[in-house]
Amino acid sequence: MKKSLVYKILEKHLISGVLIPGNEIAIKIDQTLTQDATGTMAYLQFESIGIDRVKTELSVSYIDHNTLQVGFENADDHRYLQSVAAKFGVYFSRPGNGICHQVHLERFGVPGKTLLGSDSHTPTGGGIGMIAIGAGGLDVAVAMGGGPFYLVTPRIVKTMLAGKLPPMVSAKDIILELLRRLSVKGGVGKIFEYCGEGVQTLTVPERATITNMGAELGATTSIFPSDKVTKQFLKAQNRVQQWKKFQADPDAAYDEEIIIDLNELEPLIARPHQPDNVCKVKEIAGLKINQVNIGSCTNSSYMDLERVAAILRGKTIHPEVSCTISPGSKQVFEMIAKSGALKDLIAAGCRILESACGPCIGMGMAPSSAGISIRTFNRNFEGRSGTRDAGLYLASPEVAAACALKGVVTDPRSLNETIEIPTPKRFILNDNMIVTPPEDGNKIDIIRGPNIKPLPEFRPLPNKIEAKVILKTKDNITTDHIMPAGAKILPLRSNIPAISQHVFEVIDVTFPLRMKEAGGGVVIGGENYGQGSSREHAALAPKYLGLTAVITKSFARIHFANLINFGILPLTFTNPEDYNKIEQEDLFIIENVRDILQNKKQLIARIPAKNLEIPLVYKLSDRQVKIILAGGLLNYTRESSQL
Ligand code: MIC
Ligand code: SF4
């Protein structure tokens, strides 16, 4: 049979299961990455599994999220992460070295390999031909211990790129066009495999912009073939020996197909508060703006920043706009310093930030009240910037630069400029901020500050769930709603009792208190519940407060897995209209739940006060049932000594 690129790589890594869409499979993971905000929990979990050395080909721990150090917490976490990396054989990318996805692409990504990362934008690695998947920290900890990664075989979407992008239209517009067509839930259960003549016209960082933001489609991952463009990129990174050709067979079979004609694309922009709320830039041209942020793992490559510098060269940022630049990596920073682009950006009045996530995760640079912020980032969820009523718009570096100059939303084509940036033949190579772990970690002591609290222990699932609906939410609830990030809350990531006091803060600040008063409870959700980030804290912290089940119309992939990992029952309505019959404060009863799950019986929840019986669906594999019954993956792993 003619094979897609995805199937070729998955088959090579298959440990169990059959590659049929919808089937659970287990795959071998070659590489892992963690970042600091999810990493502390991942390594605490790795420690508790009790293995002395990572068993992957390569594992890297990056410091890029919690880089604003207004108290001891983040610095303590970094010290813990550095010591734990040395102990267990993990490469350590120091703060200042850059955003995990950008650095991984430059220095570690290898075509045809699998990468599991405790960050939802891990699919950035698809730009270099990897199967790169985002997951909760616990799944990554298990993979570091040599355990397989379980996933439901996705449907493969042949994503055909025809033609070539017109001037001032960029890779960001390709993924915004897909979001416009398919929505933030259009990619759930799918992998987007790119092909067609348009592919050769895109550089590796441009491809990575597209695969990065495939996460916003809800996709499992996205991938480009490994071709001569990939070879050239690896050569410029002095890693050509790691290149191998990987592509689909001609006439390979796919589950779905979509075609984008690049010639037809125009500059696009996503309006608040979802990345799929996309329109043409010209449709909202003239809207007054307050802030421009250029950077993030989506658009902070050397070529991105060179393009911005070319537009801003010799000009001044509009007097009512604050414009920040965060280079994606130290390599990018050094490159723009050498080329002179950094000087042009400074001269134009840009505020230069360090190579880190920064404003993308609300680590500083919150916009003014009701401010309008144009960002080259990937998420514009409500409150994510740190300013609740700000309006965040997502666009390409070209659009962002044009807006920064004019002070209003501006189509960059109206600047009447042409910019041609040649692809570098050689990048500056200086890995001095990547610490290689010692051969023997036995003598290394792990350093823990007072902010690092032990992992909470959870009991097995009880046989009867009797719980109140503490919160009823709408469609597309993000993990930023469930467990907000930002400069104030992120430093609490290694302290579950403290961070749990912020659960659902964006929607209802009384949630933690009401959970406590009720002695636990359940949450009701609409479609695509838990979209966005991979943060397992969005499951772990509510579990700590006593969340036993979440009942929704549908779930996003990573959050669904995280709920199971922490022993929370993820249920969906058999009849979606039943969602309308439930109100906050209703008391739910599910009897014999252990028996029902074990014996694959119909699960029915009763609301006695309303005389209602609600049939519910649990889409769980036998392994997932065992995890839920044990009270989570850590308990299950310890009990069954199974990685
Ligand atoms: C994000 O972009 O939301 C984050 C912050 O990178 C998260 C991870 C986290 O919450 O630490 C993600 O994308 O998974
Ligand atoms: Fe960092 Fe933003 Fe990328 Fe998340 S999306 S990894 S916060 S840059």
From TrEMBL:
Keywords: Iron, Iron-sulfur, Metal-binding. InterPro entries: Acnase/IPM_dHydase_lsu_aba_1/3, Acoase/IPM_deHydtase_lsu_aba, Aconitase/3IPM_dehydase_swvl, Aconitase/IPM_isomerase, Aconitase_4Fe-4S_BS, Aconitase_4Fe-4S_dom, Aconitase_put, AconitaseA/IPMdHydase_ssu_swvl. Its cofactor is [4Fe-4S] cluster. SUPFAM superfamilies: Aconitase iron-sulfur domain (SSF53732), LeuD/IlvD-like (SSF52016). GO terms for cellular component: cytosol. GO terms for molecular function: 4 iron, 4 sulfur cluster binding; aconitate hydratase activity; metal ion binding. PROSITE patterns: ACONITASE_1 (PS00450), ACONITASE_2 (PS01244). GO terms for biological process: tricarboxylic acid cycle. It comes from the Bacteria. It holds the Pfam family Aconitase_C. Gene3D superfamilies: Aconitase, domain 3, Aconitase, domain 4. The keyword Transit peptide does not apply. Residues 8-407 form the Aconitase/3-isopropylmalate dehydratase large subunit alpha/beta/alpha domain. Residues 505-575 form the Aconitase A/isopropylmalate dehydratase small subunit swivel domain. NCBIfam families: acon_putative, PRK07229.1. This is Aconitate hydratase. It comes from Candidatus Fischerbacteria bacterium RBG_13_37_8. The lineage of its organism: Bacteria, Candidatus Fischeribacteriota.
